[in-house]
């Protein structure tokens, strides 16, 4: 009986969880951009040293993640956008300290991040030509 209930809950898809997973993929994609154009060594001696031998790095290629990145970049600078970068790109933890540095509460941090994430996703869906509804009051989206 309990297993049936757990399986039923797993089958119900949580749009916010899916969006969170999409943002985690975006963060990995964002970090892999440096593999295409690594920074130039600052000195001539560093350039003359042999490069490390091993398997070449594997960077993620995704048009969807690229469009999502463009939609996020097009958003105005806000607390939510900053919170999103701190959470996904820089992986700053604990969130309580990050929120305190930003001058907001932990709950305010997550609320601002959810709002920015939803607005960026709505913009991304519009760029892709798919209809989407985003509730500003609940900071959730409906596909």
Question: Secondary-structure map with pairings?
Answer:
Layout lengths: L1 H10 L3 H18 L11 H5 L14 H11 L5 H11 L5 H8 L3 H22 L5 E3 L4 E3 L1
Antiparallel strand pairs: 1-2
How would you explain this protein's 3D organization?
It is a single chain. With 143 residues, the chain is mostly helical. It has a domain at 16-30 and 61-143. Helices cover 59% and strands 4% of the residues. The protein has seven helices and two strands, in the order αααααααββ. A two-stranded antiparallel sheet has the order 1-2. Strand 1 (133-135) and strand 2 (140-142) form a beta hairpin. Helix 2 packs across helix 4, helix 2 (15-32) crosses helix 7 and helix 5 (79-89) runs antiparallel to helix 6. The longest helix has 22 residues, at 106-127. Residues 5-12 have low confidence and may be disordered.
The DSSP helix count reads 7
Rounded mean pLDDT is: 81
Class based on secondary structure composition and strand pairing: mainly alpha
Distance between the termini: 31 Å
Shape: globular
Arrangement of strands in the largest sheet: 1-2
What percentage of the residues does DSSP assign to strands (E)? Answer: under 5%
What does the oligomeric state look like here? single chain
Task: Describe the main β-sheet briefly.
Answer: 2 strands, antiparallel
Q: Bin the helical content.
A: 55-70%
Number of strands: 2
Query: From N to C, what is the helix and strand string?
Result: HHHHHHHEE
- The gyration radius over C-alpha positions equals 19 Å
Q: Would you identify the regions where 5 or more consecutive residues have pLDDT less than 50?
A: 5-12
């Amino acid at each position: 009986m309990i297993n049936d209930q757990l399986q039923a809950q797993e089958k119900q898809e949580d749009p916010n969880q899916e969006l969170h997973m999409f943002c985690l993929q975006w963060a990995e994609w964002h970090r892999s951009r440096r593999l295409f154009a690594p920074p130039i060594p600052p000195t001539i001696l560093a350039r003359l040293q042999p490069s490390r031998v091993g398997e070449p790095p594997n960077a993620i290629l995704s048009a969807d993640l690229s469009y999502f990145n463009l939609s996020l970049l097009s958003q105005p600078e806000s607390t939510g956008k900053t919170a999103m970068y701190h959470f996904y790109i820089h992986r700053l933890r604990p969130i309580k300290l990050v929120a305190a540095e930003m001058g907001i509460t932990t709950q305010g941090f997550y609320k601002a991040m959810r709002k920015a994430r939803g607005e960026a996703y709505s913009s991304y869906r519009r760029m892709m030509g798919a209809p989407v509804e985003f509730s500003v009051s609940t900071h959730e989206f409906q596909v």
